[in-house]
Amino acid sequence: MNIGEAAKQTGISAKMIRYYEDIGLIHPVHRSDSGYRQYAEKDLHALHFIRRSRDLGFSVPQIQELLALWNDKGRASADVKQITQQHIEALQNKIQQLQAMVDTLQHLNRHCSGDQRPDCPILEDLGQTTHCSG
Q1: Domain ranges in the chain?
Q2: Which H/E stretch holds residue 6?
Q3: Which of 8, 16, 45, 118 is the most exposed place for a label (fewest CB within 10 A)?
């Protein structure tokens, strides 16, 4: 099948499929005599794997590692578990950071009268230089 059909079946745009091939995430596929990429069932399977991995938030380097392990029938499941555990910890850290942002914004929002007056605690807080971390 051609790249458009592969994109439709996997939910990955043709542009991203070409990108994944360019960076070596997937192997270059067979090309027809006229130069069109031709995707086989095994290629679609790899693309589905990538799509699911991306949906779960894995980075491209992590997906490269997971694909290598997926293709290595002699792999140790401990290697896969280690990658996912690191990813879980990173996600949990990101959740904590996002929750802290929500808490701060809710606090600021509660203290804003939201009326026609110009004074606004939200803008005052955003303008403070004491919050800068860089």
Answers
A1: 1-74, 76-134
A2: helix 3-10
A3: 118
Which tokens in the block code for residue 102?
């929500």
d(CA 10, CA 8): 6
* 49, 67 Cβ separation under 8 angstroms: yes
pTM of the model: 0.80
Classify burial at 61, counting beta carbons within 10 Å of its beta carbon; exposed 0-12, middle 13-18, buried 19 or more. exposed
**pLDDT tens digits, residue range 62-113?**
999 999 999 999 999 999 999 999 999 999 999 999 999 999 999 999 988 8
Residue in the structure block whose two tokens are 């804003």? 112
Q: How far apart are CA 83 and CA 27, in angstroms?
A: 22
Q: How far, in Å, CA of 118 to CA of 120, rounded?
A: 6
Record the tokens describing residue 14, joined without a space: 């043709």
Burial 66-98 (b: 16+ CB within 10 A, else e): bbebeeeeeeeeeeeeebeeebeeeeeeeeeee
